[in-house]
Amino acid sequence: MTVKNPLRPDSVRMGPIDFQTINRAALAALPALLGRWLPDGKKQGHEWVARNPQRGDRQPGSFSVNLNTGRWADFAQADARGGDVISLAAYLAGISQYEAAQELAKMLGLKGAGV
After folding, report:
1. What does pTM read for this prediction?
2. pLDDT digits (tens, 9 = 90+) for 32-75
3. Comparing 91 with 57, which gets the higher pLDDT?
4. Which Gene3D superfamilies is this protein grouped with (predicted)?
5. What is the largest CA-CA distance in the chain?
6. Residue 68 and residue 30: Cα distance in Å, rounded?
């Protein structure tokens, strides 16, 4: 029986994945993705403002995603922020960025991105 080394990064254990290509495709589909992930949100300028489903927000306001860059943050939590769509997907689903990239690639129909 082979035991995986839990200290090795996912990319070493499972093979490389093209994060840049997946992020670029996800950014192009971001409004649709946000409508699915954060359906109570709304567009305000270049931002999607919604309740943070990870902390039981009662009203939108402190959690937002930049629709041009994919950067996101919950300004009520210092450690809840990221620079791209993959990190947002990982945060919302409670999974690793590698797993989130795989799921996004499948969702977006990307072949050859390491999936």
Report:
1. 0.80
2. 999 999 998 999 999 999 988 777 767 767 899 999 999 999 88
3. 91
4. Zinc finger, CHC2-type domain
5. 55
6. 9
In whole angstroms, give the CA distance from residue 38 to residue 52. 8
DSSP string, the chain: -----TTS-HHHHH----HHHHHHHHHHTHHHHHHHHSTT-EEETTEEEE--TTTT-SSSSSEEEETTT--EEETTSTT-EESSHHHHHHHHHT--HHHHHHHHHHHTT--SS--
Residue with tokens 């997907």: 89
In our burial notation (b when 16+ CB lie closer than 10 A, e otherwise), range 48-64 reads bbbbbeeeebeebebbb
Contact of 50 with 41, CB cutoff 8 Å: yes
Q: Check if the beta carbon of residue 92 is closer than 8 Å to that of residue 41.
A: no
Identify the structural domains of the chain with CATH numbers, from first to last: 15-107 (3.90.580.10)
